[in-house]
Amino acid sequence: MPGEQIIRLGAFFGVLAAVSVWEVVAPRRTLTDRKPRRWLTNLSMVAVDTAAGRFLMPILPVGAALLAEERSWGVLNLMHLPSPLKVVIAVVALDFVIYLQHVLFHFLPVLWRLHRMHHTDLDIDVTTGNRFHPVEILISLGIKLAAVLVIGPSAPAVVIFETLLNATSQFNHGNIRMPFSLDRWLRLVVVTPDMHRVHHSVIPRETNSNFGFNLPWWDRLCGTYRPQPEAGHTGMTIGLKEFRNPDRLTFFHLLVQPFLRQSKTQNPTDLAGSPSSPPRNTH
After folding, report:
1. Three-state DSSP state, 263
2. Please, are residues 105 and 111 in contact by the beta-carbon 8 Å criterion?
3. Model confidence over 229-255: pLDDT tens digits?
4. Which helix (H) or strand (E) holds 143?
């Protein structure tokens, strides 16, 4: 699709720059690890992930959308609806697929070994939103391709969705402070940093909440919403308890991490272990 790469790259670097400045001007938490090392690791992973998707996947979601439209595959390609309405339906439907995918990566042990790399970051900031293992990215692309062929979104709808997904992922991982009143209203329409940060808590029942990346509704509808971390945003511990050594969380260590034998790892499947009373509404 003409202009797709320009749109996506522009959004990526634009949001990265804006949130990075916000993190300097109004940080939410004090960082515990060295920022240059973390940024080098996380942004290097972006390059590897992008290359893996481009060179190892025979077709990408936008191409699948064009193919589906040409052959009338997918639900939306069989329906006579206004194009703008189709775009809205497609974006919402694809976002729900990503929510389900995220839950799946937490609860299937073989997938968790890949996804936990994202959670090993000892701090959370704008670059954490791009910290994913390349094998996870390839599996995610496969899931997106299947979703595109079933749902039948247009190519512009896929570009809009992919651009929003990456932009909101960087935004809601941002180490940024905003007024509580603004966060309370904003999280009705988009996942905010305070909402998603709970998901990066070292406490498993908190790791098992707030799976949404873009739209916040799925967590509320599916019972996985947790408004605030028990220890508060400045007191909570980020990461996984088994991976606390920064020297073992560098780029090459993370690439091989899913494939190494490990003592009992934190596979956060203890939703039933949630406390009987809701967490304090600390902010």
Report:
1. coil
2. yes
3. 999 999 999 999 999 999 999 999 999
4. helix 134-151
Query: What is the domain partition of the chain in residue ranges?
Result: 31-259
Q: Rounded distance, CA 245 to CA 249, Å? A: 7
DSSP bridge pairs for 238: 201
| Among the listed residues 121, 150, 167, 154, the one whose alpha carbon sits nearest the alpha carbon of residue 18 | 167
66 vs 235: CA distance, rounded Å: 48
- Give the tokens for residue 273: 């272990």
Q: Please, which residues bridge with residue 243 across strands?
A: 240
CB count, 10 Å around CB of 281?
9
**Residue 39 buriedness (CB in 10 A; 0-12 / 13-18 / 19+):** middle
pLDDT digits (tens, 9 = 90+) for 78-94: 999 999 999 999 999 99
What are the counts of helices (DSSP H) followed by strands (DSSP E) for the chain?
12, 0
Nearest to 132 by CA among 41, 215, 233, 205: 41
Query: Taking a C-beta distance cutoff of 8 angstroms, is the pair 49, 258 a contact?
Result: no
- Reduced to 3 states (helix: H, G, I; strand: E, B; else coil), residue 211 is coil
Residue recorded with tokens 């939410």: 28
pTM score, two decimals?
Answer: 0.89
